[in-house]
């Protein structure tokens, strides 16, 4: 059928392009993926060192809690707020439980985040050397740990002293403290 000059054919609508679907946003704080983590190649000595440092921080030996982290930073005379500590934990926590297990600890950029500068070590030593005589006695260690919320038996404190006491005098001097903190005992 012929269309007159005034009659126009309605153009067929052009097919609309499908709206682009934006990918769903990921979690605000994605957890590290252990499968993508570069393999840790640690010697037996480095692994033992990491385990020792982990056990110094963790009260239960299985994982590091925010309370454990808070106690660590207090001993270094660098107190952190609860949100700061939780953010630090969240950065390495792969389980989403709000704690750092040993594998998470190993994945940290610097698993030896314990004090390592001379100044930090001296400050930490001063916290434990409560009478400022240049030594950490079992009593000072016990009292300091109690003030930090650690409930250890006398036997546990004595064991800690024995492990760090290189010269066998029953107390920890600064050199022994540094060796213990750096895992070289």
Automatic annotation (TrEMBL):
<feature type="region of interest" description="Disordered">
    <location>
        <begin position="1"/>
        <end position="54"/>
    </location>
</feature>
<dbReference type="GO" id="GO:0005509">
    <property type="term" value="F:calcium ion binding"/>
</dbReference>
<keyword id="KW-0677">Repeat</keyword>
<dbReference type="InterPro" id="IPR050230">
    <property type="entry name" value="CALM/Myosin/TropC-like"/>
</dbReference>
<feature type="domain" description="EF-hand">
    <location>
        <begin position="152"/>
        <end position="185"/>
    </location>
</feature>
<dbReference type="InterPro" id="IPR018247">
    <property type="entry name" value="EF_Hand_1_Ca_BS"/>
</dbReference>
<dbReference type="InterPro" id="IPR002048">
    <property type="entry name" value="EF_hand_dom"/>
</dbReference>
<feature type="compositionally biased region" description="Basic and acidic residues">
    <location>
        <begin position="1"/>
        <end position="23"/>
    </location>
</feature>
<feature type="domain" description="EF-hand">
    <location>
        <begin position="80"/>
        <end position="115"/>
    </location>
</feature>
<dbReference type="Pfam" id="PF13499">
    <property type="entry name" value="EF-hand_7"/>
</dbReference>
<keyword id="KW-0106">Calcium</keyword>
<feature type="compositionally biased region" description="Basic and acidic residues">
    <location>
        <begin position="31"/>
        <end position="54"/>
    </location>
</feature>
<feature type="domain" description="EF-hand">
    <location>
        <begin position="116"/>
        <end position="151"/>
    </location>
</feature>
<protein>
    <recommendedName>
        <fullName>Calmodulin</fullName>
    </recommendedName>
</protein>
<dbReference type="GO" id="GO:0016460">
    <property type="term" value="C:myosin II complex"/>
</dbReference>
<dbReference type="InterPro" id="IPR011992">
    <property type="entry name" value="EF-hand-dom_pair"/>
</dbReference>
